[in-house]
Amino acid sequence: GTNNFPPCFPLMYLDIPAEIPPEHQWTVWWIYREWLLFELTLVLNFIACLCVLFSHPASVTSGPTDLGISLTEMFTHTLASFFLWYRPAYNAYMKDVSLYYFSFFIFNGFHILYTFYKAVGIPSTGGAGLILLVSLFSDGFIVTGIFTLLATICWLVMGFGAIYLYKRTYDHYKSTGHTFSEAKQEAFVRMGRSAYT
After folding, report:
1. Distance (Å, whole) CA 141 – CA 179
2. Cα separation of 149 and 143, whole Å?
3. What angle do CA 36, 91, 174 make, to 5 degrees?
4. Ramachandran bin of 124, using left for φ above 0, alpha for ψ from -120 to 50, beta for the remaining angles
5. Residue pLDDT tens, the chain, 197 long
6. Which cellular compartments is it found in (predicted)?
7. How far apart are CA 194 and CA 197, in angstroms?
8. Contacting residues for 68 by C-beta, under 8 A, at least 6 apart
9. For residues 28 and 14, is the Cβ–Cβ distance under 8 A?
10. Helix 98-120 and helix 87-95, axial crossing angle in degrees, nearest 10
11. Closest by alpha carbon to 67, among 84, 89, 52?
């Protein structure tokens, strides 16, 4: 088909109903929604960090650092997450190739750890999470606290949802009989092909 994604500037073709087998479309749709929630969470996280910077809570001294990191992550993680775990999951379900499953497992595993790390809200990490949330509400910064609460909820919902989809994909992967050695073999074949072309 012709390129249709992203809708605002089509660079590639994605069509879950046309390319994914019907029995796996539900899972792929939810992995896509997980990716969209990740983008929304990055934006909310940035807005929360921006509010922290402008409200100047006394107990939070990492406002500029958090804002800079959250801004950088909003752009870099959008592309990285799409190409490192969403697209491999899409291709895994579409082509049933072990290498794509392993790419998804590795990078989505890091993504899951990252979401819970951000949900904690450690200062100077760019994460609008629990530690920052407690500081804001205890200092009486309610509006900024509400934005931080929304970001924290998104981090947690996404983290637990990602665990569920990860397990669902892993169970499917195991039921098809794929192995790690098969994924290694596919990687070597692909490297060999690219070396000769």
Report:
1. 52
2. 10
3. 105
4. left
5. 788 888 888 889 999 999 999 999 999 999 999 999 999 999 999 999 999 999 988 888 899 999 999 999 999 999 999 999 999 999 999 999 899 999 999 999 999 999 999 999 999 999 999 999 999 999 999 999 999 999 999 999 999 999 999 999 999 999 988 877 877 777 777 777 766 66
6. Membrane
7. 5
8. 126
9. no
10. 150
11. 52
What does the block give as tokens for 29? 């749709």
Domain ranges of the chain: 22-196
> Between 142-175 and 98-120, two packed helices, what is the crossing angle to 10 degrees?
160
* Residue at token pair 């990490």: 125
Determine the residue type at 109: G
